[in-house]
Fold DinB family protein.
Amino acid sequence: MSDPRELLLAYLDYYRDTLLRKLDGLSETELRISRLPSGWTPLELLKHLAFVERRWLRWGFMGEHVDPVWGENDPETGKWSVGADESAESVRTLFREECAASRAIVSGARLADIARGGGRFGPGQPPALSWILFHVLQEYARHVGQLDVVRELADGATGE
């Protein structure tokens, strides 16, 4: 691939798919416990990335009113949270839905298009779609790398 748009979107989909694959095979218990001092769980990470998609593409780029914007954060602690009433499958569904919404937004836009006002970006110089997508890509790269370590600690699984 030599087209920057095609390359960027392919890498985003690669990381989205890799994230889900790394969660496959973890028990409900492993999805909901933390192995790190910071305390986040694999299921909380998945929910966080669903809201990353929502914040940066729907709220950020499109200027759409979305509620909640920070839905992965516990209102009292500000930390990522998944309620006991939220199943692993419901969080996966939320993630897939937000990714689908992002893909639909991007399919109708050019990389040079500027984010609309009224959402995440106020007056000033809102970023272009290319900047937003690169930011989302680096967010995935960082978090999927962290999940590599968590998965290895959980059951010894390494690699893709």
